User: What shape does this take?
Amino acid sequence: MTAQQYEIIISRKHELVSVPGITLHELSRLCECHLSVAKRLFAIGLIEPQSTRTTPLFDRSAVVRARKALRLKRDLRLSFDAVALVMELLDRIDDLERRL
Assistant: This one.
């Protein structure tokens, strides 16, 4: 079986990340945040793994979602709980717009 690769372009960086997925350590590096912050995003359910073997593995949409959450936290000076609420509301808006 040929291993797939995700192509991730962030902040003028071009990196290939091998599948089966992105580990929490890789996610924190790609999001340019501390590992404890990435763990917190995972713990409060802002990012969900694609598989939960011994270590959770994420797809590239988790990187995009985590970076969006971190921008909200930084730009609006929100707590993690407030970011979770805002992200949930944004998800609902996206869902409603798709239904229209």
Remarks:
- The longest strand covers residues 5-10.
